User: Fold these one by one.
Assistant:
Number 1:
Amino acid sequence: GAKALHRAIDTDAYEVRQHAYKALEKIGSRTSLKYFIKGTKSSDVDIKIASFKGLGKTKSSLGRDIIIRQGLNSRDPNVVAAALDGLGNFSRKDDLETLRKFLKSDVQEHQSGAVRGLGNSKIPESLDILSTAIGENPGLEPEVIFAISKKKTLNATLLLMKMMQTNKNENYQAIIQREINLRKAYGKYAVVKTNSATIRKLPRASSEKVLVLA
C-alpha cells in the first residue's frame, strides 16, 4: 500500500497527492520517511499536517528533530497541533513537559494537539496529565475522553470507569460506556478484605497517598 501511495505522490496530480499523504499518515511506515520530510516543506497545509503526524509514527530520531525544530515553531496553529500529535508517538519523558506546556496554551489548536499527543504517548504519566486536564479546561472533555480511550491499559480503563460515574453529559457517558463495553470492563465485581486500604489521588499504585483507611 505504501509503495503505491509513493508512486501516486511522485507521478499524480495535486489532489491525488494530497489524499495520498493523508493515507500514508494512517500507515505511518518508516519507508515513507523521505516523503514526510518533503511534505513538511509543502505549501499545502493538509500535506504539511499529514507529514508531521506521519513523522511521529515513524518514530525516527530525524523525524522527532524536524517536529521539534520546525513543526512546533510553525506560525500555523494547525501545523503546531499536528506536530504535537506526532511528538506524542515517541513516548519520551522529556517530551511530556512540551505537551504539558502547549496544553496550557491560550490557542485552542495547541491544546487539542497536546491532548492527542498525550493520547499517543505510552508513558504512564501522560494519563495523569490527561486526568487533570478536564478540571483545568472542561472544554477539552470530549477530546480527553477519546485520548484516554486510545490507551488500553488497566489504569486507563479504571479512569474511564471513574469518569463514567462523575460525568453528567449523556452524550459523553454514551461514548465512555461504549469504550468500557469494548473492553469488557463490566459486570465483574470482587470483595477485597484487608486490614487497611490506601486512597490515592490517581488510579495508579505509585500515585500520591491521600488517606489510609483502617
Number 2:
Amino acid sequence: ISLGWGIDHTINAHFSPDGSKIVFMGVPEGNHNFFSWDIYLWDLFSGLPTNLTANNGLRDEDPKFSPNGSEVIFKQNGDLKVMDLNGNIIGHTTNDGFSIEESMPYYKNDNQYIIYANGAGITSDIYLINKDGTDSQPLENATNIQEYYPIIRSNLTFLYTRWVSAANHHDQIYLGYFNGDNAQSLPFNVDSANDSDPFPVNSNYVFFSSDRSANSGWDLYLADINSSTTWSMDE
C-alpha cells in the first residue's frame, strides 16, 4: 500500500469508523532522527497521504481515530494531544512532556475518555483519563510489571499487553475491566513466548502478534478468547 509514498517506517495504522481513511505514523523518506516521526492521514480513495504534523520539529506517534471519526488522539513529545483531521491541535490531554511519558492512547466508545499507557518500561501502567485532561485514574498498575498497549473491546472491557511477572518479561495478553474486577490472562497465552498487540474481532475472537513459532520471527494469529485455540495467519 505504502510503496511509492516517500514515507519510511509506515506503522501503527488505524481505520476511521466508516472505513474510508487510515491514520498512521511514519518518517519522511531518508529522514530518520528522533524527532522525524509524523502523523499521516490517507483517504483510501485519493492519492498520497497528508502529513498532519509536518515540519513541527516534534516527535508524533500512536494515532487513533475517535469513535465519531472527527478527531485523532496521538502522542507528541511524551504527551497526549487531540487534533482535527486538518492537523489543528484542539486539545491537550497531558502537558508534562517526557517527565511522565504518556503513550498508546485509544478512545472509549463515549468519545470522551482515553485509555493509555502511563510511564515506560517497568513503570508503564494502564490509565483512563478524560480527553480534557481531568479525572485521571489507574486501571492496571501492577508493581514492577510493564503494562501497555490498551485497546477497547467493549463498554465494559479492554485488552492490553503485560509481562508474565516481574521475573518473566515475556508479553501476555490480558482482559481488563473498567469496573475494577481483576484482569484475566487469556487462555491462549504462552508464557515462554511474547504474545502482543491484541485487536478484538468481536466478543469471541482476537487477533494478536506472537513469536511463539520457533525461528519464524513475529507472526499474526487469530485466537478464541474463551479457549486456548489459535490459528496462524500465515500466507
Number 3:
Amino acid sequence: MRKIGINLNAKLGLTNEEYIRLISQLGFTATFTGNRDPQTLPAIGESCAKYGVICETLHAPFGHINDIWLPGDDGDAMLCELKLCVDHCGIVGAGVMVTHLSSGNRAPSITDLGRARFTELVDYAASKNVMIAFENQRKLANLAWALETFDESVAGFCWDCGHEGCFTPGRQYMPLFESRLICTHIHDNSGNYNEDQHLIPFDGSLDFSCVARQLRDSGYQGSLMLEVIAANSAHYDNISVETYLQRAANAAEKLRDMVDGRRNKQ
C-alpha cells in the first residue's frame, strides 16, 4: 500500500519521539523535517527507526534563498547553508533534500552565478548520494531551468499543491513536470492569493479531486506527504495534538483512496 506521511511537528506539544510514535500509530510511515540542528537530528533518526517511520526528505533553509542568484557573500553563504543541509540528510537517512529556487514575486532573474551555485549544490549532493528536489513557488522559469538542466538521476520535482493554489492560481505544474516528480508537499488553503495556510487537506478550498487525478495519471508511486502547520490557522487552536493528527491521518487516507482508485474516480 502506498505510504502516507506528515511533516515533523505539524502541531507542537509533544517531544519528537512522542510525535513520531503517535504518527506511526495513526498509520503514517513517512515524515520529513526542516530541523537542521545536528544536536537533535540523530535522535530524530533513531526515533524514526524505532517506530518504523522513514524520514524521507529534509527541507532546506530558504530565508534568503534569493541571494543565491546575486553576487556577494550572502549568496555564497546561502550555498553553504544548502550544502550543510545535504550533510544533515545523512544524519537522518534522508535521500532527498527539498529546496526552493526563489522567494516572492520580486525574485531575482536567473543569473549565470546562480546557475553555477545550484550546479555546485547538485554535484555536491550527488557525491553524498542525496537527490535535490526543486519545489514550485511563484516563478516558473527557474523551476523549468533546473529540471531541464539536471539529470533525473540527481534531481527531481517536489510538487506543492498548496503553493500552486495560493501562489500561482490558474497555473498547473504537474502537466509540465510530472515525469520528474519524486516527492510531494500536500496541504490546503483558502485559495486566496499569498495565503499559504498549510491546512489539512479538505479543510480549505483546493480541488483535491484534481490533485488526486493528476497524481494518479502521472504514475507517481511515492508517498503522499502532508505539509501541514497547525499554527498557521486559528482553526486548529482549540484541539489537541492527538485530535489534529488523527484528522490529518483521516485526510491522508481519504486522498490515498482517491489517488489509488479505491473511491469513485472523479
Number 4:
Amino acid sequence: SHPLEKADLVVCLGGSPVERGLEAAELLKEGYAPRIFISREQPPESLDILRARGVDFPESHELTYEMLEAFGLPPESLIISDDPVSSTAEEAEQLRRVAIAEGFSHLIVVTSPQHSRRAWIAFRHMFKDSEVSVSIRPTRFSGFEPERWWKEPRYARRVILEYMKILWYLWIL
C-alpha cells in the first residue's frame, strides 16, 4: 500500500469486482480522483454461444459498472476498457497506453490485499520509463487478514497461488 494522494484516475483491476469496486467508489467519493477505469477481463469461454441462445449473461466489468452506477457515480466518471485482458501484466500494459494517451500523471490502482505485491511488480515494470506515477491501494473491503491468512483455506490458497505468480512475474518481466 502506498500513501494516498490526488490522482487523475482510479484503476479498478479485474477480479474480485465487489471488494475492488467498493474501494474505487470510496476513493472517488473521497475526492482522490475524478474518474474510475474498469478493467475488462477475458469473457468466459462459450459466452458467445450462451448469448446466441438468447441468454443475457453479464461480464464482470458490466457488473462492476452497474454497482458503481447504483452508488450514484455519474456515468461520465466511469471508463470501461474496450479491450479484454487476461493478466495483471496485460492490465498494466493497457493502462500505460491509456495514461500516456490521456496525459495522466498519477494513477491509484485498486486491488485485493493479497494481490497488491504482484500488481506493484507489474505496474512498476510497465511504468518505469514513463512520467506517470502509480500508487497501489489494497481494498479495505476484503476479509483477508495478513496476520492470519493461513487459518482460512480460501486465503491460504490465494496467497500460495500469489507467491507462485510473483515468482513467474519476477522471471518474465
